[in-house]
Design brief:
With 339 residues, the chain is an alpha/beta fold. Helices cover 42% and strands 16% of the residues. The protein binds nicotinamide-adenine-dinucleotide (NAD) and thymidine-5'-diphosphate.
Length: 339
């Protein structure tokens, strides 16, 4: 099996590479990544020189380069993680989100058509469903929930999903789509809630909680997401969407307090700041379909996963301290300076 993993130098893609190498040591994995600010080759250091692994630095929007790679490799599967992923950045500048998340996905699917790749898997997000009210805990996102987006990020991901389903229907491209809830774990870029709060707590810097802090996200440990994608690749039905989530809804403020407590710092670091424009209130996944069809269940409880994650950031300061220099400092000043 020869699998192309795009965006494999990012958070979930790199964890997926590690997961697949362990589960399927005989598979060849090719990682294509542009290495944007969110991609970090050092994350892949332990696999870079392995014989059944190849890294290629390319933009998924570069049609010629993508076709060249497909011609050479004749992939059996493509798993598309490559994307611009941070909602706040999409509010600031939507353009690159449209380019990578929509155009890039279409280039990859054109390559799959041209080289007759037997499977294209699109890694999508629960954010395509928009948000749920805080006072209706009975409501969950199912695969039938209408797409109803809030941010340029989620809109670009939704557009890619629609295109993928259009390629399935129009050209018969063998597509599957997964829509996962918020992930956490090692190697997440420190602009996202959990690693940002860990890094700031360790540095005793203010912890910027948007709005009331009562917004709810449904958190899943990254390995459980990887396991779900592996199952979909091997047993999922073509043309289907699978929601992935572990019924683990948490309010932002409770997560921040948990991190502060674990690191033995003061809650006085918590600072309420201006809300995110268009801020989604609540996400919550109904994972019935992937459970009943593919037998998927999450393995890592939040209480265990969050401790593992905090400890990882404490023990791997070198990984994130280098990447929070440079461009990230400018971003941080822009994003939080006048909030
Ligand atoms: P990330 O931002 O950590 O990594 C994205 C990776 O894509 C980086 O390595 C980056 O260099 C690469 N990339 C960006 N533009 C590219 C381009 N034009 N060509 C090639 N490579 C490019 O993202 P992540 O959190 O690992 O998310 C991976 C995927 O999972 C995304 O598609 C995202 O929408 C989806 N997702 C993420 C979450 C989450 O909680 N993080 C939840 C559900 C779904
Ligand atoms: P984030 O990690 O950006 O993921 P997403 O917006 O895609 O769900 O944010 C998770 C939640 O945390 C979201 O409700 C926004 C909130 N948040 C803060 O309160 N402060 C922050 O500094 C960040 C980055 C996020």
């Amino acid at each position: 099996m020869n699998i192309l993993i795009t965006g494999g130098a990012g958070f979930i893609g790199s964890n997926f590479i590690f997961y697949m190498r362990e589960r399927h040591p005989d598979y060849r994995l090719v990682c294509l990544d542009k290495l944007t600010y969110a991609g970090n080759l050092s994350t892949l250091a332990s696999v870079l020189d392995k014989p059944n692994f190849r890294f290629v630095r390319t933009d998924i929007c570069d049609r010629e380069a993508v076709y060249g790679l497909f011609e050479e490799e004749q992939f059996d599967m493509v798993v598309n993680f490559a994307a611009e992923t941070h909602v706040d950045r999409s509010v600031e500048s939507p353009d690159v989100f449209l380019q990578t998340n929509i155009i890039g996905t279409s280039v990859l699917m054109d390559a799959c058509r041209r080289y007759k790749t037997p499977r294209f898997h699109q890694v999508s997000t629960d954010e395509v469903y928009g948000d749920l009210p805080l006072d209706r805990p009975d409501l969950l996102f199912t695969e039938e929930t209408p797409i109803h987006t809030s941010s340029p990020y989620s809109s670009s991901k939704a557009a890619a999903d629609l295109l993928a389903m259009a390629y399935y229907r129009t050209y018969g491209l063998p597509v599957t789509i997964s829509r996962c809830s918020n992930n956490y774990g090692p190697y997440q870029f420190p602009e996202k809630l959990i690693p940002l709060m860990i890094a700031n707590t360790l540095a005793e810097k203010p912890l910027p909680v948007y709005g009331t802090g009562l917004n709810v996200r449904d958190w899943l440990y990254v390995d459980d997401h990887c396991k779900a994608i592996d199952l979909i690749l091997h047993n999922g039905r073509i043309g289907q969407v699978y929601n992935i989530g572990g019924h683990n809804e948490m309010r932002n403020i409770d997560i921040v307090k948990l991190i502060v407590q674990r690191l033995g710092k003061s809650e006085e670091l918590i600072t309420y700041v201006g809300d995110r424009a268009g801020h989604d209130l609540r996400y919550a996944i109904d994972p019935t379909k992937i459970h009943s069809e593919l037998g998927w269940l999450p393995e890592t409880a939040f209480a265990e996963g969050i401790v593992k994650t905090i400890d990882w950031y404490v023990n791997n300061r070198g990984w994130w301290e280098t990447i929070v220099s440079g461009e990230y400092q400018e971003y941080y000043a822009r994003m939080y300076g006048n909030r």
